[in-house]
Amino acid sequence: MLVVMQSHATEEQVRAVCQRIESLGLKAHPIPGSLRTAIGITGNKGEIDLGVLESLPGVVECIPVSKPYKLVSRDAKEEDTILRIPTLSGDVVVGGGHVALVAGPCAVETEEQCLAIAERVKKSGARLFRGGAYKPRTSPYSFQGLGESGLKILSKVRATYGFGIVTEAIDNESLDLVEEYADVIQIGARNMQNFSLLKRAGRARKPVLLKRGMSATLDEFLMAAEYILSEGNYNVMLCERGVRTFSDFSRNTLDLAVVPAVKKRSHLPILVDPSHGTGKRHKVLPLSRAAVAVGADGLLIEVHHEPDKALSDGMQSILPEEFAELADEMRQIAAILHRTIN
Amino acid sequence: MLVVMQSHATEEQVRAVCQRIESLGLKAHPIPGSLRTAIGITGNKGEIDLGVLESLPGVVECIPVSKPYKLVSRDAKEEDTILRIPTLSGDVVVGGGHVALVAGPCAVETEEQCLAIAERVKKSGARLFRGGAYKPRTSPYSFQGLGESGLKILSKVRATYGFGIVTEAIDNESLDLVEEYADVIQIGARNMQNFSLLKRAGRARKPVLLKRGMSATLDEFLMAAEYILSEGNYNVMLCERGVRTFSDFSRNTLDLAVVPAVKKRSHLPILVDPSHGTGKRHKVLPLSRAAVAVGADGLLIEVHHEPDKALSDGMQSILPEEFAELADEMRQIAAILHRTIN
Amino acid sequence: MLVVMQSHATEEQVRAVCQRIESLGLKAHPIPGSLRTAIGITGNKGEIDLGVLESLPGVVECIPVSKPYKLVSRDAKEEDTILRIPTLSGDVVVGGGHVALVAGPCAVETEEQCLAIAERVKKSGARLFRGGAYKPRTSPYSFQGLGESGLKILSKVRATYGFGIVTEAIDNESLDLVEEYADVIQIGARNMQNFSLLKRAGRARKPVLLKRGMSATLDEFLMAAEYILSEGNYNVMLCERGVRTFSDFSRNTLDLAVVPAVKKRSHLPILVDPSHGTGKRHKVLPLSRAAVAVGADGLLIEVHHEPDKALSDGMQSILPEEFAELADEMRQIAAILHRTIN
Amino acid sequence: MLVVMQSHATEEQVRAVCQRIESLGLKAHPIPGSLRTAIGITGNKGEIDLGVLESLPGVVECIPVSKPYKLVSRDAKEEDTILRIPTLSGDVVVGGGHVALVAGPCAVETEEQCLAIAERVKKSGARLFRGGAYKPRTSPYSFQGLGESGLKILSKVRATYGFGIVTEAIDNESLDLVEEYADVIQIGARNMQNFSLLKRAGRARKPVLLKRGMSATLDEFLMAAEYILSEGNYNVMLCERGVRTFSDFSRNTLDLAVVPAVKKRSHLPILVDPSHGTGKRHKVLPLSRAAVAVGADGLLIEVHHEPDKALSDGMQSILPEEFAELADEMRQIAAILHRTIN
Fold it and tell me: What average pLDDT does range B148-155 have in this prediction?
């Protein structure tokens, strides 16, 4: 924390701020400048809220310096975290140059639908299957998902084709079931700061895929992951899915720069979901290519064999044959960056 | 829904879109213009996702027309909803010209703290007391609230001073307890789209105060309220607490225009929380005055008798004596608008 | 500037950064903390871009500390700037507790229109008249303003009713004319960072009203004003007119918190334009009241006697009789805050 | 335009709105739905502002349907515009599968600097050289560019290495000179809605590179280009350079989805500037790869041989050897998409 004093702050005011800092058990380091004095603070381990210094006489503002996250930080672990998700067809590896393809419908609708899509995306090389059994929907009158019977359908997809299953939990009850039936527990964007759910996910024995909230800063995103790690679950993948901005031509603004930004600060792998990020089919393909090129550790792509009959988000799903072509292009782009898609 | 065709769309393409609409059991109304044809759609009760029409040949875009909310809308109920919150000192009325003052600390810390603040804000005329027993915090290492023992302290505040108690629930477990101990169940901004929690709140027998999410559009905000009403609980107050924008001088950007906007579309009362909305003490006072002037049905204001010792958000709390003066000014401003503060 | 080092930065890396700073003629102040070292820098008068330090080995980030503005800052001048705009009916005073009402149509259309509106708003006590002769329009096919003949109409309004005239300049050529015909030169939001125009305004002998850009941070806003002051023109009023956010129910999001924020940092007066800020007639009235309550030094309000025939922005104009009522309410609200409307 | 009526609007109200529309010389098409009536309007060629209908009794809102742009639209010209920029080493082609590399320093500093950088980026295959002689800077105290002598240095770069020169004009005076000395006239983000400058650029005989404003919607961006085309200059390239959002880890949020979005609506080529878009060196490389992968028609990349001595924006410049490697990767990625870099 750095306290910036007004240019006409008196020496007494500077001294009073320093005394206040010391009275909190911290150390004050006044730095007199040509225009004004700033006061560095050391010794705070994050437990003291220093914002109140801002109201002392002569203070302009308080600037936080140390980042609040610990376990997710490269300060705590320099090398990339590499996750291994066990499946019937062997481990799927995510991170450290290994790029994962997660494909499937937005929502689990019927066994036939899931098996039909699964068969096709498997041919294109996807080894993780996505599909929502619990759907967070803006409207209470929209389809809310099949619940546990949806999870059973996903189990069948796993048994039939050897996929690892990625599916969303929306509360503690559904998380219990997702942990039982699936291979990766997804926490959606709307629940990124549902701290009660994050803590529960931190006690789960399955990897967690955490989506960035619609208006989450990078620090908030990493702190949400910190909640999970702090409860003991270190198997966390992050996922960018678009943020909310003034821009109105796409549902969200896919913030691909977050990929190198996360990699600079954290050892956790980060995936990209261009389907939710763009909300429109004709943007999913170009942005999927871009996501691989920017260095994402995986992609979540909505694929539906009959998108115009989909019960939710059909307009952002691509066809299995489009996915096949895309997977091929992504493999080539990854190769240029010395990365491999598995 | 309106489907806009390309200017060089063929007649066959227009016909194909119409047939597709009719095949869904809806009615198509083509409107040929000088430049292009648009196709109106009627008969959709919200259950069909028409976004997929956007991928038909010749279509430029699909524009939604009907608003998705029903019960919260002035279409469903023209006159203002007026809530009555029973307290030991009589009903507190919110809405329809009655402005509520909700005051208290950010977090419940100790019985002494709460009673000291309660005594002072009561003198200034506040009749609803706020204070968090469950605190959603960005960091897992920050103070998370006292839980049930915090609720017991709030009960004591009610018994001692006759306040109605407003406090936040963060998951189903805490909601059970909040419903038991408090008079108004608060759903925080981070949980505005925690639909599982909204449904539970919709089954509660106490009024709900729903805060706007950090990046919630007006439609999403009203749809979140719709979740609560659709489960049978019609006693809902909305609350603006600032949205997230590029603007970096305050923690959030308080969007006061949402007050007249809500009042145009919905019969529900809307309050304003200028403490979270601004995040800085020196902005709380002017924005509280502005919130009354813009027509808010109530204010939530953080008051702390020792803000620099507060365990959370001390820098946005005002002193009891500042609150006293503010309450007085707000009363005068309300009177100019023919409204009364209770 | 503060340079934050990685927690595992070596002593040599810290030393290298310090040497680099010293080689630029500045002074380095290393502050060793429990987790990491930060390095304060003093002696920089703003002319050296220190961002490059961020790419030195071991550096996490560079945090700017000193604010870049000088002349607009309260550091340079503690007391409020009070502007006096000479008119035929005596000086109009802006700032220091004096609140100015600026009323008139969005665009100057005809002499009859302007005189009709002027007559009515004068009765309500407005002493500054607004109206655009040069209109920055999103579309090249929209009405672009009457140009110099519009300025002549405004001159007539001044001569007839004694108003001070506020009107926009959009380039150097129009600024020459506006300076000649009007009393206050307005720089619009879209030109807030048209630095060529700002410099020209800085050499003008008339006061300048500078609107905040659609996505300008507070620092950028104040720096734009700094451009004008640095050329010698100290008679600058700022004006908040709404910023661009994700929020879609109003044209812009009026950021009223900028008023106390400006007042904390700068001595310049700040006005509010709720007409552009909201874009809808039914929001102009409540937000005008809120702007006075938040402490604005003036309001710009679009008034049109026949808004549905207006050539631009009719939907955000209010009627003269609405303005009369509003002016009365604003006067009462100002009085509560010990301020006067003139 | 579509007018949406309230669900309880009376037949008379609907009739009144229709009459009002017809009185404006337009045609009204009422569409009675199960819940409410909507009224389509045809015959408007863009010159009538229909927003005022929103204030008629019974109206909920007015939804614009036709896009306001004409000449830039694919409605006006279906096939891609392909620009040819003549240089001493032959035409550089932009658009229609041809991807342009524009490289060079942020600001022209000295002849030595420019020639040194030019020599190196030429080896990597760049054929367009960028460098600012007029610099729009947030602070009046920052380096503002060398002006005409900077343009002369750029001329020398052209003569020596055969580059086409891309450089920014900031007002009418500098545009005259840029048109004389350079091959492509750049209009910067801050001037995207400086309509006076856009009109002047529309009368220039050189191609224009128009950068997206910091908070420009897609419609505003295309309308700004429309200003240039409407004055007769059809040689326009668009350029995404990042938009302003709440996200604080990069200077701007690069909105790569705008590339497919522009391509759907407009025939104009669109480039990407990842240097300004990210503001940090370690993000420039990954986002440059992503920009090619998303289908951009060109890239503007800041290259400096001594970035830590740069007079402006050194922290976002990459080294010539980094550029060489990047150019190579971009060529490979372009090939996968069947595009060529020239």
Answer: 98
Give me the mean pLDDT over the C219-224 stretch.
96
Question: Using CB atoms, which residue from B215, B260, B329 is nearest to C283?
Answer: B260
Residue B110, chain D, CB below 8 Å: the answer is no
Predicted local confidence at residue B54, as pLDDT: 79
What are the start-end ranges of the H helices in chain C?
A: 11-23, 111-123, 148-161, 172-181, 195-202, 218-230, 258-265, 274-278, 281-294, 320-336
pLDDT of residue C314: 66
DSSP, res A107: B
Nearest CA in chain C to D218: C138
Asked if the Cβ–Cβ distance from A257 to D248 is below 8 Å, we say: no
Tokens (6 digits) for B289: 């005055």
Reported as a single tens digit per residue, the pLDDT across B75-121 is 888 899 999 999 999 999 999 999 999 999 999 999 999 999 999 99
Q: CA-to-CA distance for A298 and A334, rounded, in angstroms? A: 11
Chain A partners within 8 Å of C74 (Cβ):
6
Residue C47 banded pLDDT, cuts 50, 70, 90:
low
What contacts A301, CB < 8 A, 6 or more positions away? A101, A102, A103, A273, A274, A275, A284, A288, A318, A323, A326
Closest to B155 in 3D by CA, of B113, B99, B114, B186: B114
Under an 8 A CB cutoff, do C75 and A29 touch?
no
Question: Which of C253, C291, C292 is opposite residue B255, by nearest beta carbon?
Answer: C253
For residue D310, pLDDT beyond 80:
no
For residues D287 and A294, the answer to whether their CB atoms sit within 8 Å is yes
Strands (E), D109-250: 128-130, 164-168, 184-187, 208-211, 236-240
What single string gives the DSSP state of each residue in B103-144? Answer: EE-SB---HHHHHHHHHHHHHTT--EEE-BSS---SSTTS--
A245 phi and psi, to 5 degrees?
-140, -175
Q: Are strands B37-42 and B27-32 parallel, antiparallel or unpaired?
A: antiparallel
Distance CA A290, CA D294 (A): 5
Beta carbons within 8 Å of B96's beta carbon, 6+ residues apart: B80, B81, B82, B269
Q: Is B41 on the interface with A (CB under 8 A)?
A: no
Taking a C-beta distance cutoff of 8 angstroms, is the pair D270, D80 a contact?
A: no
Is residue A5 a contact partner of residue A11, using CB atoms and an 8 Å limit?
A: no
Distance from CA of B54 to the nearest CA of D (A): 13
Least confident of A248-252, B184-188, C189-193, D229-233: A248-252
Angle at C217 between CA C213 and CA C221, to 5 degrees: 60
Give me the domains of chain C, ranges plus CATH numbers: 2-63 (3.30.70.1140), 83-341 (3.20.20.70)
| Pairing state between β C128-130 and C98-104 | parallel
For residue B325, the distance in angstroms to the closest alpha carbon of chain C comes to 11
Q: Using CA atoms of D264, D266, D272, D278 in order, give the dihedral in degrees to the nearest 10.
A: -70
Q: What number is the ipTM of this complex? A: 0.89
Chain B nearest C-alpha distance from A228 (Å) = 9
CA dihedral for A195, A196, A197, A202, sign (positive or negative): positive
- The answer to whether the CB atoms of B55 and A230 lie below 8 A apart is no
The whole-angstrom separation of Cα A168 and Cα A310 is 18
Question: To probe the interface with B, which of A193, A199, A243, A247 has the most B CB atoms within 10 Å?
Answer: A193
Residue type at A136 in one-letter notation: P
Give the residue from A4, A52, A211, A245 with the most B CB atoms within 10 Å of its CB, the best one to mutate: A52
User: Rounded to whole angstroms, how far apart are CA atoms A195 and A167?
Assistant: 19
Tokens of D294: 């998303």
Q: In chain B, positions 276-335, which contact chain A (CB-CB < 8 Å)?
A: 280-282, 307-308, 310-315
Residue of A nearest to C249 (CA): A246
